[in-house]
Structure formats: C-alpha cells, structure tokens
Write a structure and sequence with these properties.
This protein is mainly alpha-helical. It starts with a helix and ends in a 19-residue tail after the last helix. The protein is globular and about 55 Å long. The chain is built from five helices and four strands; from the N terminus they run ααββββααα.
C-alpha cells in the first residue's frame, strides 16, 4: 500500500468515527477562537501588579470551540482561568479538547501540503510526500492520544482496516 493510500484509509477511518471528535468538542462552550495562538502572536505586558496578555494577528479568528488554541498553552492554567465563566467544564474536558486541537492542526497541515502533489517535478513531489508522511504520523499519534490507552485501533481489530479511530 502506498503512502497516500494509507493516509486516505486513515482519514476515512477518522471520518467514520467523527462523532468522538464532536463529543469532545461538545464538553466546552463556544467562544472567540484566535485560530493561530502561539508565542509569536502573543505579547505580555505588565501594569505593575500583574501581567496582561495581548494576542495579535487575528486573521484566523472565529467563533467555536477553542480546540486549536489549546495546543500550545498550559491547560491547567487555562482551565483555572475559564472555570470562573464555565463552571461545568472539567480539566479533563479541556485536556481532551487540546488533543482534538492537535488533530485539527494536523488535518490543516495535510490540507495545506496536498496541493503541492500537483507539481510534477521530483523535487516538489518528494518534499510534499516527506511532509505528508510526517503530518500523517503526527495525526495518527494525536488520534491515539485522544482515543486513550484502552481503545484499540482498527488495524488491531480482526478486519484489519484503518489505524485511526478517535
């Protein structure tokens, strides 16, 4: 089986079990989402008594669950802050949503890289394939982390189809 065939098979398996992603997202209320929250897009400023956070570069902002914003932050600190406004949200919900955010980021990376497969020069194609292999491995790992240690992948199952179920 080729690299692209394995990727398509795993994406199909993820799609078949998309309800697990939806369930994880339903545990946290919708909010303003930055969409590209990372250190280079955040400034800290002190007012003499406390630090204030100033996110910049809002081009990917929207309304929804903050999964992608939770991939590069300290989740216990985030939870401590938001539970004042979301008292029913547990730390486990925020951690699960952070794992979903990793899946979303890998899916976006695969989408960004896929158009490069159209180039017929070996240099472009080999670079795109190498990147897709890395993103695929990262996606598989993110799905395993969301799934948890007690749930088997479908490749472990008797029918032997797919690797990723959330």
């Amino acid at each position: 089986m080729t690299t692209l065939e394995r990727l398509v098979e795993d994406l199909d398996a993820l799609e078949r079990d998309w309800t697990a992603i939806e369930r994880a997202c339903s545990e946290v209320p919708a909010t303003l989402v930055h969409g590209d929250f990372r250190p280079r897009n955040a400034y800290l400023r002190s007012d003499g008594t406390r630090l204030n956070l100033f996110p910049i570069d809002w081009e990917h902002a929207g309304w929804g669950v903050p999964a992608v914003d939770l991939t590069r932050i300290d989740l216990p600190t985030y939870w401590t802050t938001v539970r004042e406004f979301w008292p029913d949200v547990r730390l486990a919900d925020v951690q699960r949503l952070g794992r979903v955010g990793q899946i979303f980021r890998r899916l976006a990376a695969i989408r960004w890289m896929s158009p490069q497969l159209a180039y017929d020069t070996p240099q472009w194609l080999s670079g795109a394939m190498a990147n897709l292999q890395v993103f695929h491995a990262q996606l598989t790992d993110a799905v395993r982390r969301l799934r948890g240690p007690n749930r088997r992948s479908t490749r472990d199952a008797p029918q032997g189809r797919g690797t990723m179920h959330a």
